Amino acid sequence: MFKTITEGSAKLNVPVNETISRKLEVFYNPVMKFNRDTTVLFLESLSQKDLLIADIMAASGVRSIRLLKELKSSTVKTIIINDLDAKAVEHARKNLELNNLEKDKRIIIENRDANKLLHDSRKFDYIDIDPFGSPNPFLDSSMQRIKRGGILGVTATDTGALAGAFKEAGIRKYWAVPLRNDYMHETGLRILIRKVQLSASQYDLAAIPLLSYYKDHYLRAFFIMKNGSGAADDILKQHNYIHFCRKCLQTSVSKKATSKKESKESAKKCTCKNEMETAGPVWTGSLGDKNIVKKMISICKDDKLIKFLSILEQEYSAKAESKTSGRSPDSIVGFYDMHSITKHHKLKDIPKTSAVFEAIRKLGGKSDSKKDKNIVSPSHISGTAVKTNLNVKDFLKIIKKLK
């Protein structure tokens, strides 16, 4: 059975009261509305014209229909609405009719394997990869068919592999060790970004993240593809390892999985002398472009989305000075969760996160152990997170003074 709903400007016939799974007669996930909201807003913020778009796993067609109806008519020149499932394609046709788009000459409907479709097509300005599971099977063909300067949108719903619930799967699928802790979804996002960048680098492309986030048990990232082996090499230089100490909750980042002068089998030591767990390699550059997010905020009419984007803007702005000449500033990797750190260090009171932000900003200058200016921001991963370049010792000094 089907029912008619409205999402954004689109009318849709979707399955009634069915569990979200691959077995759906026509796949539609209402939870992914936020994903589609950000996609429309992101593409609108770029103010581009005459885009050639490939929606390679369109299912009900909702994403394509919303792009056609909500973006300016000059934005989309051609959009391919494709799905391997013949029933889904037929249903997408009916949804196009429901929205009076069945005669729109910009639309090409295909019923093909996504990779075969891409291999047989011309190059696109925007390719959207939104599978049920891992995007891995579609990365290589997408890199071959994305234009230089084109945009790639990637979703991953296999967060168990990326965030450490299934460590072996994470290593096997994404060529990196995940880390299960408070900021495991940020680590997973950085692992996903790196995997996309590795796929791009084979074709002398630099995949630069413009917008990326974790939400509702999925990871989403948008990349602009910059051409050139030099640009690709610069991206690879920002693939590093995360080290995490479960004894004191310190996080550090380094080029190597182990500390210097140690064998490959040796663990990196924390300043508290405990052996640290190591994750990665991961992307340690910025998770997105704050200027893109600012533009999205300026045109957004959804208060909840504006709130989420405002956190991303602050998070993307939190960068530490690079210690390597010629490189862009490093992103702040990981965060301190206020509930976890106070419980772990047996502190009686949990200060308000806002008070911690204010205290670090007032401190302003340089802490005892930092040569760089102190940095602080929220994280979209958790409402009780504090992202900062302060080490755990200095951070504890601050929160112990707050009541």
So what's the oligomer here?
Answer: single chain
Q: Which fold name corresponds to the CATH topology of the domain at 2-236?
A: Rossmann fold
**Radius of gyration, CA atoms, in whole angstroms:** 22 Å
Q: Helical stretch count?
A: 14
Strand order of the largest sheet: 5-4-3-6-7-9-8
Q: Let me know the CATH homologous superfamily of the domain at 2-236.
A: Vaccinia Virus protein VP39
**Given this structure, which CATH class of the domain at 2-236 is correct?**
Alpha Beta
Largest sheet: 7 strands, mixed
Helix content: 25-40%
CATH architectural arrangement of the domain at 2-236: 3-Layer(aba) Sandwich
Structural class designation = alpha/beta
Total beta strands: 17
Shape: globular
Keywords:
three-stranded antiparallel sheet, 403 residues, 35% helix, Rossmann fold, alpha/beta, single chain
Structure description:
The protein has 403 residues and is α/β, with parallel strands linked by helices. It has a domain at 2-236: Rossmann fold (3-Layer(aba) Sandwich). It contains 14 helices and 17 strands. The strands form five sheets. It has a seven-stranded mixed sheet with strand order 5-4-3-6-7-9-8, sandwiched between helices. The chain has a three-stranded antiparallel sheet with strand order 11-10-12. Helix 1 (33-46) packs across helix 10 and helix 10 packs antiparallel against helix 11.
